[in-house]
What does this fold into?
Amino acid sequence: MSPRPLGRRIAAASSGLVVALSLVACTTHPSPEVAVRSFLLSWQGGDHAGAARFTNGDPAEVEAALADVHDQLDLASVRFDLGGISQDGDQAVAEFEASADLGIGDPVWTYTGSMPLTDGPEGWQIDWSPSVIHPELEDGERLAVSYEIEERGQILDREGEPLVSGDSVTAFGVLPAEMDDKEAGVTELAELLDEDPDPLLNRVRSAPPEQFQPLVLMRDNSVDGTLLNEAGKISGVQTEEIEINLSPRVAPFLLGEVAGTAEHRVSSRVAGAYQAGDTVGLSGLQNIFQHELAGTATTQVVTLGDDGQQTAVLESWEGVRSGGVETTLDLELQNAAESALEDLPGNGYLVAVDIGSGDVLAAANASGQASDDGAFTGGYTPGGAFTLVSSLAALDSGAVSPGSPMPCGYQSDIGDRTFTNPSSGFLAGEPDLSRNLSFLCNVGFVDIASDVGGDQITESAAALGLGADWQLPLPADSGTVEINDDEADVAAAMVGEHGVQVSPLSMALAAAAIADGTWNAPTLVREEGPAPAGVGDLDEAHLEVIREGMRDAVVNRFPEVGSGEEPVYGQAARAEQGDTALHWFVGYQGDVAFAVLAEVDPEMTMWQQYAVTSATGFLAGDPEGQQQPLTDDQPLAEVMPETESDLN
It folds into this structure.
């Protein structure tokens, strides 16, 4: 619920209660209308002593009763409109409409009131009783605002498994009736817990005094005996143990962080209205689906008896029940993805998607940070991993055809650039595109770049979803392909070294399109996914050539990836971006397509192809990630030769 800022002032006159000051100052009240208007105008303006003068009640008691209404409801403002007045001799009854604003984000309570009047020696005066405030308020009763806050909902994986763990927290709160001084006590508690006292006071002022009001939550592992002892010294302060869905079990950057506990300093981090004791999503899906997960409280204006027990409900506003958010994530695959990245020497990402639908099955970072969303938003150089795309461009353009020769030499000079193969070798015989792809022959690809052309590379990239127009609930990047006409730059684009930026998510989706024959837009939350971007059909014969090259790449260059009964298809490559080496593995197995990116110190890259190792761990579901050093008979993933005779 919302806060009601400290020190608010009651709004001034409304158009329905314009009264000349000279009339208000009269010592007698010549008509019922003058008496009622004057009373309501003074009440509305916060002049409770002035309002009391228009009644026949004890002035101090009336003043206190009207002031209590504002405190009991913690009103932001109140306004009145005068209704009809019926008169019978020296007796009259006046009706009025009241609009009581319960605070920012809270409802406005509107009701019809009435008050009897009697004409006496002082003129017309209001016959005072609590029913003047509200028709159902009786002697010995007071008003209060009661909130029933919803429990925070759960974020679920595709099988309904919970992705957020229930944390045991200590709720620091107060029992208002037992406080010697509400403002001083709440302020002291806020200072002890390093929180802003204003939202806490807003809740306590209008709360039923005999009900415990939870104000600040703190995880149990942060609560020690000293803190509990200091809090216990404040009159009216109590604690309760409760459980709330707060911590992500997996994928912190996707699920996000929840505020509500003292360590979050809610008041300084949450923009907008909130109620003390609420939980608020700060990032990720917790933030995007805050309304669905938190719901809204049921708010009631109630009357309380002398014993503090509720006697009646004067008005109720039903809240919205909290609910769950169903994601497309697969908890088992998500755990495998996170485990596969654990032993990387630097940061890294892994994204897995469902081949037939584009559903995001897993998205992980090696950093474990909730703010690290590079798996979705990162712009990275793909290097040779882009040959999956340029192979399609080569076939779609007609520069090569399935099975036609595509020579792979030692090097190629194009414009002012010299291109070589990662292995510094070449392929003997008459290799075709599939073999060039499987052994990552950069020279073979750059040599046909002028026949393919930058426009065709861009078009084929778009057919595989790079740069496509789609949107997830969370920030994400579909990649960019911007190639100029320079012949060396077009050649560099063929091997992912110019004009191309991709995210692990966009490359996983491209691999899924190659496997399925159709590109699908990604989905992360059920019933929230975008419609596909309308990418045209892909040529099945061309895709089969690429699949063959990807399968041979696994068999010949990194067979350790091929675990399980289903064959693995993929491409591995190394690229440079700034002072970081990027290791890629992009591929698919069965119904799952995925992309792995490892950010590595260039000085370490000769020891391992870390993306291949992580891909191996992911597919095997091995918590240890199967990290193994290379030996002399284990060529780097970029090394091309199929046999010793291929090296010349």
Q: What stands out?
A: The chain is about 30% helix and 25% strand. The radius of gyration is 36 Å. Confidence is low (pLDDT under 50) at residues 1-27, 622-648. The longest strand covers residues 108-120.
